User: Fold this.
Amino acid sequence: MSAPEPVTYIAQGGDWAEITAAQAERGDETIVVNMGPQHPSTHGVLRLELELEGETVASIRPGIGFLHSGIEKNMEFKTYAQGSAFVSRMDYVAPLFNEAVYCLAVERLLAVEAPARANVLRVLVMELNRIASHLVAVGTGGMEIGALTLMTIGFREREMILDFYEALCGTRMNHAYIRPGGVSIDLPENGLAQLRTLIEWLHKHLPEYAGFCNENPIFKGRMCGVAQLDLTACMALGASGPPLRATGYAWDLRLSQPYCDYDTYDFDVITWDTSDAYGRFRIRLQEMWESLKIVEQCYDRLEATSGDPVMVDDPGLAWPAQLQVGPDGQGNSFGHVKQVMGQSMESLIHHFKTVSEGFKVPAGQVYSAVESPKGELGCHLVSDGGTRPYRCHFRDPGFNHLQAVPALCEGGMMSDVVVAVASLDPVLGGVDR
Amino acid sequence: MSQTVDPADRALVRPQPVQPPAERRGMWGSGPGDVSGYGGLRHPVVPRQPSARPLGGWFDEVADRLTTLVPELGPDAFLVDRGELTVAVPGRLLVQLVRHCRDDAWLRFENCVSVSGVHYPDQVGAEFHVVYHLLSITHNRRLRLEATCPESDPHLPSVVRTYPMADWHERETWDMFGVVFDDHPHLTRILMPDDWVGHPQRKDYPLGGVPIEFKGAEVPPPDQRRSY
Assistant:
């Protein structure tokens, strides 16, 4: 007796009931479902090929690459300073971490260190970004299991953080704020006041998430015991970030391999002991509080170091203009442009050398890594001694984590697949680059 | 595609640590559009030499241990640069070496965090460098392994049997550079479409793009603009 011919069902505008009825009649229980790449629960454009026996996942294969934009290739044709704007567009939910890891790599190649105040500003924007990224992870993850309020309030808080970024550097996303040698601009005049407002806002609203979710029986029913990945599996699959810490292992690059003076801040590494989606959720929730703690320490340091330089004191490296954000939220220092174009030949030459030609970076290769909200974000940067990266490769935590999807989902329910993927928090812009 | 080649013949060229091109041209570097009049200048670039002992810090400890476990490695395999240790590994020793790196108690590099390729068209016989970044959580150390293969026979052994997390990273390196990782369980394209022709991260692969038209002027695509 030969196997029955495979049948293709298309659910575009059709009725699922007809499909399930037809499938039940056939009697062969395995059905292949293509989830994505345009499914909203796939955090971008992730394609999941599921083979189902009833509602049980027999096998699952993630397919990526739909958001590949050739950022690494493009960067080989742009100067090092321009690279900052490119990497910002990879993991667009946590852009400042991309910029930080890239700039740390460039700085190590150049053997320069950013000034202290620049490091404080970097830590400040990164930790605010961690909160924003976790809010998106928690919010969209909640939305996918029906907790729509989590998404709406998550984006409400994120909006406040983006408003602060807008006041700081003119853009809400894709900031290109962290530059090789420092940051592009110091706090605006009322920056500290706005930061204080933001801190108070977060203090007021962050407890809502715990109130909504922590003991919510539906929430726990969907999350507890789902998408298990124990320490052994995490080690075998190279998991980092919340999935690794959810196994109880306190590994955080901010403390184990400090950068940007992270070791001088007081904060805790959050762990959980359930190795499941709920544990990862609780870690993200608690990490927001730890980040807020760091942000408050940054506030004090910024207050104390007011007026200090935010860019390395090297005219061959630092952007020649002190950027000034105009009332329209955009713009360069008008006074500088006027001087360069109208009065000073030397300024024009200097501007050309740094901006158009770019600075030269000594030959060699480095690998820098930061603890992004998702895990270890790495940058392998190779220089041939020229003004543009010879090769720039990014190790995105989401790229690595998506390999674990079969381990998380196979043998489980189909409905748990979205929970599992959301608990890894991949952002496909970073995965595909 | 994958012709059979005796593994012993592969990667006989000892890999060199990361090298700048053999020479730099012109006043401004390579590329088109150098109208400065200095386009004929040639600057030879001296290849960088492996580091001499002592390497400093824990590097000696790891280098000694690696040399003990894999004696073929030789003393000139190690390069310390900017506080990072690079080990140049001949392809035929790679599988053996990574197994030791992971399992030996003195090394214990549990995690291969990243695999990436670099294309050096000037290095005849070793055009492709594949760079593995290992992380030891136990000892809190990082190590870089660098293996090379020629463009005419782009094969390296896969490390997936030792480091399962390198699976997608090797697929990406195959996709972007065309390096074949022998013994990989499922070496297919990952970022580019399955039917894509060519390997985009190779230096001879054009960036693409169209000229940008302005009123009365045209700006060439990025890879054809003047560069310095």
Observations:
- Chain B has three helices and eleven strands.
- Residues 86 and 137 of chain B are 18 Å apart (CA to CA).
- The mean pLDDT of chain B is 81.
- Helices of chain B lie at 59-69, 94-103, 166-177.
